[in-house]
Every structure is written in structure tokens, then in C-alpha cells.
Amino acid sequence: xxxxxxxxxxxxxxxxxxxxxxxxxxxxxxxxxxxxxxxxxxxxxxxxxxxxxxxxxxxxxxxxxxxxxxxxxxxxxxxxxxxxxxxxxxxxxxxxxxxxxxxxxxxxxxxxxxxxxxxxxxxxxxxxxxxxxxxxxxxxxxx
Length: 143
Description:
By secondary structure, the chain is mainly alpha-helical. It is 52% helix and 0% strand. Helix 1 runs antiparallel to helix 2 and helix 4 (93-114) packs antiparallel against helix 5.
């Protein structure tokens, strides 16, 4: 059992304060997980862990759990990970058409005004072919 008079790890109460409150299985499991982390960090041997885990499962109050971790320093918890960025919305036919059609019309107009030798309908035809190919169903294709 852990020595008396040391500061308890957070979450299990401080000896002398709330130590009389009863605990449930969740608190017992949390205490054992905390002890496992201290084993992984090399602060407890496996035999010490076995002894303290048995005492944790037999504990009835917060004070019982606090005494099991009183001689252990608080663990440094990793900072919570930043939330994942929102997934980009897939391109739909409407989105592609709203971007592609005006761009191709502008390209046709520029080609016509500049006399670039590009027939004004060529970019529009190419654009619709590209749009058709981009939106065709791909059976069995994952990309």
C-alpha cells in the first residue's frame, strides 16, 4: 500500500477530503488504468502493480483509491489533438458546370476577340466532353 501523508493523484480526492465518498466500478477501472500508465513509465514494478490493482478493485471509497496513488506524481497528459479539418465536399455536376461553363465561354470570347484562330465553339465542345468524362459513373474504380 502507498505511504500515508503524500499528495494524491488528481481525480481520486485528497486524503482527508471527500475520502468517505463511495466509488463505483468506473472509478476503480480509472485507478487501475492510471496504475498501468505508471508501470509503463517505470514508476511501479509489475508486482507493485498487481498488489495495487487488487487493492483498487477492493476499494470502496475515494480515500482508498487516493492512498493507492498518493506516492505517484501526476501524469503528464498529452494535449488534446486539434480537431480534424472538415472533409471537403465532393464536386457535383452542378459545381463543375457553374465553374466550367463560364470559364469556357470567357475563353471562347477572348479567342474570338483576339482572333487567336481558335473557333469560338471549340473550347465549349472540349469543356462539355471533359465534363461528361468527369461525371461518368466509375464501376469498380476506387479513385
